[in-house]
């Protein structure tokens, strides 16, 4: 089954006290223009595909979901179908935007948005640690961290890191989230 193995976003991971290339639940994160790596094959969106990379494992974190913005959700679902992936869920998300969710290691949240072509928007992590303690620690590093609040998903909580060139949030774990590499 196709899975995301690495994501590159314009976020400097060392700002969070992590190595230059951290690996969270088996997904490596690198810094730079948005692109991704898939195994064995990537869907054919207008997103640059990077060479696979391996990072240093970070305990207590996984990539919960990656957000992909697309101009046409139905066309995106058809693109995913060509690599034998079907949505696990379809729904309207806040902002009244249609979205489809695919299990590709982490969840790939595909959101219809006013964009010209598909683009990686951001990433959400899950942690087993305290979001309040993490917020305090990251604020101590000079990061602009929002308040911990209820997430859209029932029973989960989320905090957003502001001032990034990509969307970035950390959530409490969900039942199916696995916090060990597979």
Number of domains: 1
Radius of gyration computed on alpha carbons: 16 Å
Order of helices and strands: EEEEEEEHEEEEHEEEE
CATH topology: 2,3-Dihydroxybiphenyl 1,2-Dioxygenase, domain 1
**Oligomerization:** single chain
Report the sheet-strand fraction: 35-45%
Set out the fold topology.
Blueprint: E1 3-9, E2 22-24, E3 27-31, E4 35-39, E5 48-49, E6 56-57, E7 61-70, H1 73-81, E8 89-93, E9 97-103, E10 107-112, E11 119-127, H2 131-140, E12 144-145, E13 149-150, E14 157-162, E15 167-171
Parallel strand pairs: 1-3, 2-6, 4-5, 7-10, 11-15
Antiparallel strand pairs: 1-4, 2-3, 7-11, 8-9, 9-10, 12-14, 13-14, 14-15
Report on the structure:
- With 182 residues, this protein is mostly beta strands.
- The protein has a single domain (3-171), classed as 2,3-Dihydroxybiphenyl 1,2-Dioxygenase, domain 1 (Roll).
- It contains two helices and 15 strands.
- The protein has helices at residues 73-81, 131-140, and strands at residues 3-9, 22-24, 27-31, 35-39, 48-49, 56-57, 61-70, 89-93, 97-103, 107-112, 119-127, 144-145, 149-150, 157-162, 167-171.
- The radius of gyration is 16 Å and the shape is globular.
């Amino acid at each position: 089954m196709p899975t995301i193995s690495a994501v590159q976003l314009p976020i400097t991971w060392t700002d969070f006290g992590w190595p230059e290339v951290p690996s969270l639940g088996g997904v490596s994160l690198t810094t730079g223009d948005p692109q991704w790596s898939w195994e064995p094959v990537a869907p054919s969106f207008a997103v640059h595909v990077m060479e696979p990379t391996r990072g240093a494992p970070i305990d207590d974190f996984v990539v919960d979901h990656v957000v992909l913005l697309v101009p046409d959700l139905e066309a995106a679902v058809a693109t995913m179908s060509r690599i034998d992936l079907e949505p696990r869920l379809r729904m309207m998300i806040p902002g009244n935007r249609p979205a489809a969710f695919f299990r590709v290691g982490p969840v790939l949240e595909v959101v219809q948005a006013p964009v010209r072509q598909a683009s990686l928007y951001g990433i959400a992590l899950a942690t087993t640690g305290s979001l309040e303690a993490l917020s305090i620690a990251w604020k101590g590093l000079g990061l602009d961290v929002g308040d911990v609040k209820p997430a859209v998903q029932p029973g989960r909580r989320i905090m957003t890191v502001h001032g990034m060139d990509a969307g970035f949030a950390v959530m409490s774990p969900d039942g199916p989230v696995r916090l060990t590499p597979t």
